[in-house]
């Protein structure tokens, strides 16, 4: 396929490798060039891409025609609600847990999140006071969200280290470039094995809940009205997707918050003086440094036109959500951190049908952990060893801090 045959008007053409170390470390110059090149740009690597807010919203507004399958289903499974573009069926499955993720329901978790954060900070503070440098990813970021969603799902703390390990390995499938050689790639194979291991674990959990129902999220789907329309495999797939999504992205967001508080002592002091600003501050940090950078959609119909560009059936468009969240057509001074910015919703949690079910939980965790950090952690600096492992799901892989 040539670009000329694919477009109503000739689109700009670029060659961008989203999996390069440079994109993980500092994607913003490249993302800006893509956004400024045009509303839709052809990547010579074989797909369309857009870093503009308006275009990304148009794409997300057309589920089915511009659908998630087979991309998302390859990660989570064909029957996971996050991969289903049929609105009625998607909502039927999603609504099994909708009440559990409402703000009024989740408010009961605030003391747990604060206590977990404080408990994890105790050894961190001791080590910092002893003059050590502490990597906050294993010390706090990675485990806090897993413990919270594990609590909601009724998974014991003893099992959570395995769940975290399997989840991290699964994430390799969404952040690695396995095109062409994926079946011989050790990282991809490890990711696939982790999916199988987590599936086996959850099958045991599901079987136990059938015999011993509780008020946890696994019991809710096992004993829901919709369960009669689901195979055992579909129940497992949806539970696995919920457990994975409930900790990976939030862990990265918490890492971004810690990094910014270390880099911006002025912001730290502002939040100390006005703790009520914390929820909008962490929201602004996420807009500026989005965790989910890439969101793919495949064209499932003929004659699809977005931004005057014809997208042939069978082609793919990559939405650069982080780039859209810095779109100057939507945000004034988009590359600046402004925690008092007018509250325009970003695309950090998706949009329309496939907006994130756990958005309220993620916001609660981000705000509450930050509140405890501001209250308890001495002023600190982020070390030069800070490293990001991937662009597509972007957060600190190594986050060393030490006292000022």
CATH class: Mainly Alpha
CATH architecture: Orthogonal Bundle
Q: Hey, roughly how much beta strand do the residues contain?
A: 5-15%
Q: Taking strands numbered 1, 2, ... along the chain, how are they ordered across the largest sheet?
A: 1-2-3-9-6-4
Q: Please state the overall shape, judged from the principal axes of the Cα atoms.
A: globular
Which whole number gives the mean pLDDT? 90
- What fold name stands as the CATH topology? Cytochrome p450
Q: Pairing-aware structural class of the strands and helices?
A: alpha+beta
Going by CATH, the homologous superfamily would be Cytochrome P450
The amount of helix comes to 40-55%
Any idea how many domains?
A: 1
Largest sheet: 6 strands, mixed
Amino- and carboxy-terminal Cα gap? 56 Å
Task: Supply the number of helical segments.
Answer: 19
Low-confidence stretches: 1-7
Number of strands: 13
Write down the Rg. Answer: 21 Å
Describe the protein's architecture and organization.
By secondary structure, the protein is an alpha+beta fold. It has one domain: Orthogonal Bundle (Cytochrome p450). It is 50% helix and 10% strand. The strands form 4 sheets. It has a 6-stranded mixed β-sheet. The N and C termini lie far apart (56 Å).
Short description:
This protein is α+β, with helices and mostly antiparallel strands. It has helices at residues 3-6, 21-25, 28-37, 53-60, 71-76, 87-94, 103-106, 110-129, 136-141, 144-153, 160-175, 186-211, 217-222, 232-245, 248-263, 265-273, 278-288, 321-324, 359-376; strands at residues 13-14, 41-43, 47-50, 66-67, 134-135, 294-299, 304-306, 309-311, 316-320, 380-382, 387-388, 396-398, 400-403. Helix 12 (186-211) packs across helix 14 and helix 17 packs across helix 19.
